[in-house]
Design a protein that fits this description.
mainly alpha; 88 residues
Length: 88
């Protein structure tokens, strides 16, 4: 369950399932709330295919980490930056 007892999650069960599958906290919350609002089947039809982090350059990965406000990524290898992005 989310750490905050005053969480605004609309579908905590889906949130936990997404987190167990490796989704970030932000992504899991966004999907679970959209699913509660619009229905799970509707959310599954949205969006396009996102490229895999493995296909990104190190510079692009670090830029994304900076955009997300993450710290300590400068000395990391590509695989370590990917892990950082996936676990934030």
């Amino acid at each position: 369950m989310p750490k905050n007892k005053n969480s605004r999650l609309k579908d905590p069960e889906l949130y936990e399932s997404l987190r167990e599958d490796g989704a970030s906290e932000e992504k899991a919350a966004r999907i679970s709330n959209a699913a509660a609002r619009d229905g799970r089947s509707e959310v599954g039809h949205r969006g396009g295919a996102a490229g895999s982090y493995e296909d990104w350059t190190v510079a692009d990965l670090k830029k994304r980490a900076r955009e997300l406000g993450l710290h300590g990524y400068s000395p990391l290898t590509k695989s370590e930056v990917i892990e950082l992005l996936r676990s934030h």
